[in-house]
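note to self — DONT lose this again. spent like an hour looking for the file last time. sequence + predicted structure for the chain T wanted, 304 res
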Amino acid sequence: MGILISSIHRTSSLLTRLAFVGALLLAAACGRSAPPSGGAVVVDDVGDSVRLDHPARRIVSLAPASTELLFAIGAGTAVVGRTRWCDYPAAALDVPSVGDGIQPNVEAVAARHPDLVVLYHSAQNSGARQQFARLGIATVELALDRLEDFERSAHLLGTLTGHGADADTMLAAFQARLAAATQPTRPDAPTVLILVWDQPPMTIGHGSFLSEIVERAGARNLFGDLAASAGVISVEAVVNRRPDLVLVTSDSEPAFARRPEWQTVAAVRQRRFVRVSSSAFNRPSPRMPEAIRELTGRLRAAVR
């Protein structure tokens, strides 16, 4: 269930993402004045302009992916608040928790005196964003669901924190590691069911970073034809597609595997599980290449 909670963070709220545009160029094109030296203007994934007069010095990050990303680009010392799900890197655990990232506790966040709040892109966060605006607290809303979102968000956060060069360096190394970890696609690649909720059954679609991890590890997402990040399916649909394997994101046996209706799925009945438990499988992050390598090894062991 960790994926549902911390990576896609309530998948029912996922919306169409807007492309990131260079901040100062867009400000100039729209006739806006440039910020003072050291400041920045960016456009976030809601399409709103976010202006800071100086690099963010006190940041509350309300998604595990953005928290990990801030530390990766060298802005971790500016993070003064996080969600209870932000568990990586270890230094993040020293940052005070403000609770959840969806419909966050505005008072708890404001108590950290942030000059920037990083929100996960969700319709459920629109109310909090409005409250932060009334309090004069800048917010940036990011749709961190896919690899392309990770790369765009790294540039955006680099601009807002004054760590643009560090973000570029991190991304260059990341791309090299990603290319080295990615496996070629084979016609006989095993199909993998990625179930993130069981009542009702909910699976990961093509719009999720986790689908990309599975595919780059040399397998095929059973519901890779689902364009969204996630969607509700039926047990009958799973039976008809005949998955070779089931991805399990914990060390224990999933509860659904003991239910009678799931015994009609051969991969469940025969316990053909591929187990992973690292939080690297819970969010798009700089650790994606390592997640791909780990899954590649587990897939090879499972199909021997």
